[in-house]
Specification:
With about 100 residues, the protein is of the alpha+beta class. About 25% of the residues lie in helices and about 20% in strands. It has helices spanning about 15-25, 65-80; strands spanning about 30-40, 45-50, 60. A 3-stranded antiparallel β-sheet has the order 1-2-3. It is globular.
Length: about 100
Amino acid sequence: MANSDPRCLPLVEVELDQIQALLSPALKGAAITSVERMEGGLVNTLYRVTPADGSVPLCLRIFASGESAWETERKILSRVSVSLPVPDVLLAERGASG
């Protein structure tokens, strides 16, 4: 039987307390109302994070393919941002490897 999962890399599961700690600088200490894993994507894991203070929800993107992939995307975002709308990167840091 063929594998119906189109993902290239497995999902990265993250607990609410880990997300709160990770995003604390970007949220300026605000609590989180909800975290939902977003569907789609072949490589990275996406979470929609809703702050309790009513500010706009954030997308937490976890790069499963490593730092090199993130650096490439960061450079591309920087280059195209002068002519195309791109997401604001509020926080980027190297996570613990598993």
